[in-house]
Protein 1
Amino acid sequence: MTQLGYITILVLWACSTALAISCGNIENGRVKPSSFFHRRKRTFECNAGYIAENDNNRIECTSSGWSPVPRCIPIQCGRIENGKIVDKVEEKTTFQCNHGYKSENGINETTCTSEGWSPVPICIVQECPHPPDIDLAEIVSGEKAEYQEEDVVQYRCYPGYTLAGPERITCNGEKWTPPPKCLAPCIITRQQLETKKLLLSNGRRRTVLIQSDQTMEFLCGEHSDLKIPYLIKCVDGHMDLPTCISGTGEKCGRPPTIENGDITTFSLKEYAFGSSIEYRCQHYYIIEGERKSYCYNGIWTKVPVCLEPCVITQEDMRSHNIDLKWASAQKLYVSHGDFVEFKCRSSLFPNSSNNYRVQCNAGQIPYPQCT
């Protein structure tokens, strides 16, 4: 061997020795020799009769010591199947089951004895019960005898009914994500139209079926010149038919103001009986209620409200250890009623009690948490 070769070996031995001193020795183990260029990231091996407590034997020397902390345990204990050791205080060892598994007896502490682990740590597969039964719906895919973590089933409503919520739910930590609901349609009969002196938008009367969340326009019949309101929405089988009025009445003053919204025309000091104005909301805000308000005997009919959006920031996501699943943005606006999906940050796991596809509700969003 040349003199340069001896010098290289000596340098590597010196660096390895200095590294072991700065980060400390490994109890019942040792650091494997490594090249000069990779002296911070190393691998370790355990002495005879011992085994690394986790599968990963790669470590790095940092300013605060080895990361992760290398531990060698007696070989009679061995690794924990479908789990890993997360801490050790004196004789007590704390373990955590892998994602999709749970401790069989609910205990996450054990002790390594001369005869092995006591109690024996056993990680079993997490299972969900049968998916919830949804009224007026059926499961169309994913149905089976047993359900495990991340299994998915899909629902479909009966004809005429409207699905509200996600059509697919997921087994998440022994329980299902929130299921959907099937909303009933509204049936307006010819007799109801005749009693209310109403006409359909085409000026005729007939029995009609309107799906939930859909709207229908009505006209007033003879001897009526105003409809309040003119567009009616079906809400899960319920629909308030409009009221027709006629004749003259008191005038109205300026229309009411609404928070985060305004009328679409210039405001006047005075409005004639039967006049109407229309409202709109600011960007990202969702209008709830009838857009038009009518002047009726000096009083304006009910005005709508503007529902606040949800604002998702990097700071909020960092505090919950999550990221957006399908997008990357410093700030995201989510309108009321819309859904957004999150994922755990790298190397973190979801909490079993959380749902990671959540809905914005009037500016509030239930953030999931990862650990």
Protein 2
Amino acid sequence: MFETSADRSQSNAEKYTKREKLFGTEDVLPLWVADMDLDTPDFIIHAIKKRLEHPIFGYEEMPNAAFEAQIKWMEKHHGLLLKREDMFFSPSVLTSLNLSIQTFSSEDDEIIIQTPVYGAFANSILNNNRTVIENPLIEKNGDYFFDFEDLEKKISPKTKVLILCSPHNPVGRVWDKEELLQLASICLKHNVLIIADEIHCDLSFKKHTPFTSLSEKIAEQTITLLSPAKTFNISGLSISTINISNETLKEKFTKKYQAIYLGEGNVLAHVAFEAAYTHGEEWLKELKEHLLENIALLKQQLKEKNSKIKFKNPDATFLLWLDCRALKLNDEELHQYFVNKKLGLSQGISFGTGGKGYMRMNIAISKKAMNSIKL
């Protein structure tokens, strides 16, 4: 199924249009943006084509059937019991994150992120005139862990929110339940709200524990952000959900939500969202197998070449966190090292503290493309 994929190089795909700007050449395989260079599943395309048979594309509400499809999926695959009345449409997880920051903190308040982490977290905090507090992860032989002692020290009366990346981008950790419970206990103790970005949860190779499922008390202090966009390669359709079970938080959020007015999304996104969660199980199983094969291919190549580049197999995501420190290159040299090999990767330094000497590589590509990579 994933032997080849459609050519996007002549489309308006961001990862291709920005090659010259970011890498100084168009002659690179762009492996930086976290979307897949794999065909969107047929069942989603068929659902969209079916909707296109109706000649009117006026305003529509996001149908309850779409929300119910996500509810059933999350219960079956992650044991998470969502309720329709707790769910909001949002065009993207980043929209949801920024809206939540605006709703549940004030200017100059502190918001914690656990670096190295998706760079848009820090940007969202700074763009809203809040203060970024880094609680760097602990790295041990390629494995990453929360630093609870540092977290306790960093929390102050001005700390209002912790943004949890679960599974984690870019290090690929699926957090154990015990780790999450300890994190939750600290946040509950200090009345810190948790915004859980769980967009990669369906791309887990081991059991993912939704943060809000830990306990009713924890759920009352958690906002969960979900989307099928990464899993089924429909990021360009702009659709996700925000989940808030605490009635007080939900009432406060609703006022901001209505003031901003995000609308209900576009009609094609609705059918894609529902189709993904209704028909996606078998396709996702095959996708994960393909991703593991790509990971194994790269690992074998590095081993055969006795490469100084190494990585730990991720617990989740289609992103590899390449440890290039043994190359002893500065950040610009490291960037150029991969460009010279015709690869466009994300620089580790863009993920904050702990990213120096690393590169992030997207391996959600066809087998043909994977075999073309020569490191």
